[in-house]
């Protein structure tokens, strides 16, 4: 017992002061970053509407959030998942039964090694104490070049397909995406979830790129 106490005490003594993940200048204040960096986040103040769908969005896709998302998404800097999940958790999210991360195609997954939205969703789901639900798969996207607006929408919708033999079905879910641009992938995913019997589908994203 005494040994254990000594050990835990000495462990406390050597705990390093964690530096801000963004500037490294100050110590961490919230969600792995310092107070200054936290206040400089380009928060999005209102719920946005894309394709007539309301989307809860934490920030605008501006510096430093754009750089962080790029590093997280394309440079394997997965340690940013905590910060990004915390941005989502600042939103006044509705009560849901499960989180549906925006799926990526098999080709993307092989190329990137992970689904960035799933990595953020894992932390959000853990903190909210709800499961992650992935009943929809995304097929490879064909080029959108030369297509009309309507054809583009149809093209995106055809990418989202319900996985076979899905036993668990949730009624109230929250889609989690990283960056929203046109909102067409969120709309397409919503439509697939509706086909599965979801009655209330909310959507949230880390950043809004207009
Ligand atoms: Zn900082």
Automatic annotation (TrEMBL):
Residues 117-208 form the Phosphoribosyltransferase domain. CDD domains: PRTases_typeI. Belongs to the ComF/GntX family. This is Competence protein ComF.
């Amino acid at each position: 017992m005494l040994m254990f106490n000594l050990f835990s005490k000495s462990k406390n003594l050597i705990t390093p002061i964690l530096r801000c993940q963004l500037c490294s200048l100050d110590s961490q204040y919230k969600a792995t970053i310092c107070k200054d960096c936290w206040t400089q986040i380009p928060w999005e103040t209102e719920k946005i509407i894309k394709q007539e769908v309301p989307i809860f969005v934490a920030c605008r896709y501006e510096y430093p959030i754009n750089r962080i998302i790029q590093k997280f998404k394309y440079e394997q800097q997965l340690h940013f998942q905590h910060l990004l999940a915390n941005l989502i958790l600042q939103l006044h999210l509705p009560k849901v039964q499960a989180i549906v991360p925006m799926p990526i195609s098999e080709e993307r997954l092989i190329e990137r090694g992970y689904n960035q939205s799933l990595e953020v969703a894992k932390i959000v789901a853990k903190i909210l104490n709800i499961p992650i639900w992935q009943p929809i798969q995304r097929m490879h996207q064909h080029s959108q070049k030369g297509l009309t607006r309507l054809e583009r929408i149809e093209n995106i919708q055809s990418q989202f397909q319900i996985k076979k033999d899905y036993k668990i079905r949730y009624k109230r879910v929250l889609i989690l995406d990283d960056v929203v641009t046109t909102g067409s992938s969120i709309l397409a995913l919503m439509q697939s979830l509706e086909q599965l019997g979801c009655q209330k589908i909310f959507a949230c994203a880390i950043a809004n790129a207009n």
